[in-house]
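TEACHING EXERCISE
Course module: macromolecular assemblies
Task: Read the component lines below, then compare them to the predicted structure of the full complex.
Student: A.B.
Group: 4
Components provided:
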Amino acid sequence: MADIELILFDIDGTLLWPKGVGRESTRRAMLEIFGTDAGLDGHTFGGKTDWFTLHELLSERGYTEDRIGQMMPVYEQAIARHLTAIIGDFSVQPCPGALSLVAELRRRGLLLGVLTGNVSTTAPVKLRAAGFDPAWFPVGAYGSEAADRNLLPFLALERARRQLRRSVMPEQVIVVGDTPADVACARALGAVAVAVLTGFSTREALVAAAPDHLLDDLTQFAEALLPAERE
Ligand SMILES: [Mg+2]
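Instructor-supplied answer key:
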């Protein structure tokens, strides 16, 4: 395995369990900004960017993908405000092994990032609620930056290069997520794909997506992916 330089984590179902707070804050923000929460109850979020979700739910009402993009700054403000107001009422939790893995990766000096469908304003609120300091993830690519999730790893890689002030190759990047869309995202970049079974996909769906590593949860990450340290 090439020396890994950057590890990009999905948030929901990978680092933490949002316990419904994403759907409820989305509902409140949609009602405020678009006047409807059309179709949200039956909506599957897993692996989608929030931009994609909004377009999917609102396209019948005439909202193009570009129009959603134009409204994104005001939407981001609204959803962050709603999320912050209600998140204390939801028992947001870190996924098994997530906090200790992040601590171990930081101890090893690896650059960490989030690669998430959440918009840029809500990701840090969710992270904090689950016990993560957003500053532990200096690189970020968010669901407010593109409707197509597969564009996000390229943004993250560019930001990592700027942080590190050197070249980082796609094969030196690990993308960790809980859905086939996360695996596709890793493949789009040419990164190592790690899938975890703690989230919003079935084992069958993740096996079919053929990640490089399929883990029950993040407690298995270090043994599967980190080189043993010499004394
Ligand atoms: Mg996820």
